């Protein structure tokens, strides 16, 4: 199809999918635009790059079912706090119950204010959710991944292996088939707690945590790296320290010490993209990357992809007031996917066609490929 033909189809699809997004939109996109949206997370193939980050939107099987139905590619479960066989949790302070969430404008974008932290129900309940996620994953409907906050010691303390052992083995058993994919969440600890004032301590965690987890089951580990309260240079040191992980999720929210809250919005994506642009932050083949932070358009997905992210995880954009989405029907997940992909100006399809028109993205075997937005590993600079 000519490029003006593609643009006309895009306008038409954007309008007609406002009522309902087809479940198999990746196949439709491939057929209509010759665009292959295939993406990757932790070496797993995804039909497209858009996933949901860990949080309040992946707390129960009903939410997962809705997301599978909408055609989301990945859902990371709410973070559970690790425990030992007796149920002791050294990070128990993070298992806080809090119901109120406020979606607000911040810096010209959106942020969600919420003071709770990890999973606040029983570990058995979490395992039941993991099994529901496993079933959806096996059925090929949605890749579901648990997220854990494990013990993080002071510099002069050992890791509490009993918590690493019990939690990792229980999750691996609930999952069944090896390997278990798991995200390690560093966020609240690095943000608000006094433990996060010590740089050497943070770097030790990032260096040592993967092997602590690996000691107890066959796992593939994505480490979700927090925005620490230090400069960009330290943020790059964190990336390097975490290089033994299988994947890095870059980077969780910023922290406002005055208000005592984590926040997102444009400041978050500005910082994340800036750090990923740093010479020492340049993409290498390993660990692979998954982007997170203020992703609200296909154009922003392409920005993260240009910095090595083979998939993305959104939270805030799946929580906007309904009238903020151009779609008029379907679940919030469907409405978000609709605009992220099909918006004729800033949707992912439009951006890929624009890159092609500018000679920045070439067809392979007649197709434009999402993964070709990533810099090639041996290039000196991002494409
Ligand atoms: C209300 C809320 C709860 C969250 N809970 C978690 C969590 O438990 N574990 C985690 O790793 N990230 C958590 N996050 C971070 C999100 O997964 C996401 O990475 C981050 O908000 C940046 O993406 P966004 O700008 O699209 O929201 C939470 C975010 C929000 C807004």
List the helices and strands and how they pair.
Layout (H helix, E strand, L loop, with lengths): L2 H14 L8 H9 L1 E2 L2 E3 L2 E3 L3 E3 L8 H10 L3 E8 L20 E5 L2 E5 L9 H16 L4 E7 L11 H15 L4 E6 L1 H6 L6 H16 L4 E7 L6 H10 L5 E4 L3 E3 L4 E3 L2 H12 L10 E5 L5 H9 L2 E6 L17 H11 L5 H10 L10 E2 L14
Parallel strand pairs: 1-16, 4-5, 4-15, 5-8, 8-9, 9-10, 10-11, 11-14, 14-15
Antiparallel strand pairs: 2-3, 6-7, 12-13
This protein binds flavin mononucleotide.
The site of flavin mononucleotide (FMN) has 27 residues, from strand 5 and strand 15.
Index terms:
383 residues; alpha/beta; eight-stranded parallel barrel; two-stranded parallel ribbon; 12 helices; 36% helix; binds flavin mononucleotide
Q: What does this molecule look like?
A:
The chain has 383 residues and is α/β, with parallel strands linked by helices. The protein has helices at 3-16, 25-33, 61-70, 123-138, 161-175, 187-192, 199-214, 232-241, 266-277, 298-306, 332-342, 348-357, and strands at 35-36, 39-41, 44-46, 50-52, 74-81, 102-106, 109-113, 143-149, 180-185, 219-225, 247-250, 254-256, 261-263, 288-292, 309-314, 368-369. The strands form five sheets. Strands 4-5-8-9-10-11-14-15 form an eight-stranded parallel beta barrel, surrounded by five helices. It has a two-stranded parallel sheet with strand order 1-16. It has a two-stranded antiparallel ribbon with strand order 2-3. A hairpin with a 2-residue loop joins strand 2 (39-41) and strand 3 (44-46). Helix 3 (61-70) packs parallel to helix 4, helix 4 (123-138) packs across helix 5 (161-175) and helix 8 packs across helix 9 (266-277). The radius of gyration is 20 Å and the shape is globular. The structure holds flavin mononucleotide (FMN).
